[in-house]
Amino acid sequence: MASDKELSDFLKSVEKRAFKRTVYAVREDDSALDIVQDAMIRLAEKYADRPPAEWPMLFQRILSNATMDWFRRQKVRNAVVQNLSEFESHDEDGDFDLLETLQVVEDSLGTESAAEAVSRDQILRLIEAEVAELPARQREAFLLRYWEEFDVAETAAVMGCSEGSVKTHCSRAVHALAKALRSKGITP
Amino acid sequence: MKTINPYQDVQTLEARLAARLAAGLSAQAQTLPHDIGERLRFAREQALTRAREVRQHAAAAAPVVVGVSRGAAVLAGAPAWWQRAASVLPLLVLLAGLLMIHEWLIQEQVQAAADIDAVLLADDLPPAAYTDPGFAEFLKSPAP
Predict the structure, then answer these.
(1) Nearest CB to A131: which of B13, B25, B36?
(2) I want to staple A86 with a disulfide (CB 3.0 to 4.6 A). Which of A9, A135, B68, B131 is the partner?
(3) How far apart are CA A107 and CA B43, in angstroms?
């Protein structure tokens, strides 16, 4: 059985990302804190005796459910459904243009020229703002896959969708972020 | 001017960019206001307290050795099924006793009514009975 310290260390390692992820969804600090606390308590109550290796997926699943519960309680489910349907956006650019955008943005984040144009802090805030603007499913897939570093199968399990959907959501999220950042002036 | 290779693997590029963006998010997450950090710490402690309570509750439900008498360990904990069954035995006995008393009382009442009927039937018929319309009707009716 896992010790208190293991559980404490795990919660400490995920709490900030969990809070941020929830804030992106509900856009309220207080509600996000309540949801994260609720998810932590649910994990501790039901799954503290599980092997610590299972906690990350369980916690993310619980957090997703707790966030959905919050939306249900707020009676804004229609808004969520609307957000969920937003991933059907249409990319009119060809592969070459998207590739160029991706490369430009990636270069911008990693070079001095970007730092000269916009401070690093501003860029980080901009990234955060654009992530928050992503459609809900795209954002969830992006954050689980690249921030929580789950693999495609794990992300699909947490989101309750197919691995193909996860890849599609992630790809669209990255492309949308790249475009948005480039349009905000993050260019070489 | 930078040359873009159109054959570059898009997925690799996506993954690299996503990793950069995620690193940016991580850096931003480290700059949470102090009060948010404190509330997260409080939430974590609440969860740990709850986990301890659940663990203690589970431990209390498990059998534990509460004493040793002449080499035999005495166990306490959740009672076995036969112990739980035995605990309802007095209730069943009480219920059976009440049903028996009820049945005995009914038999007593029936017996008393039968005794009265027997006495009445064995007695002489009073003459006034022949003037009773109901008795006359009874005499006219066919025997069952």
Answers:
(1) B25
(2) A135
(3) 39
Q: Cite the DSSP H helix spans in A27-162.
A: 29-47, 55-73, 77-85, 95-110, 112-117, 120-133, 136-142, 152-159
Cα A47 to its chain centre, rounded Å, is: 23
Question: What is the pLDDT at residue B64?
Answer: 56
> Cβ separation of A124 and B21 shorter than 8 Å?
no
Measured distance CA(A77)–CA(A53) in Å, rounded: 33
| Tokens read off for B144 | 């069952």
Using alpha carbons, list the distances in angstroms from residue B89 to B80, B83, B101: 15, 10, 19
B91 pLDDT band, cuts 50/70/90, is very high
Instruction: Check whether residue A8 and residue A59 sit in a common domain.
Output: yes
Number of domains in chain A: 2
Q: Which two tokens stand for residue A1?
A: 């059985």
ipTM score of complex:
0.74
pLDDT, residue B55, reads 83
Q: B22 and A99: CB-CB below 8 Å?
A: no
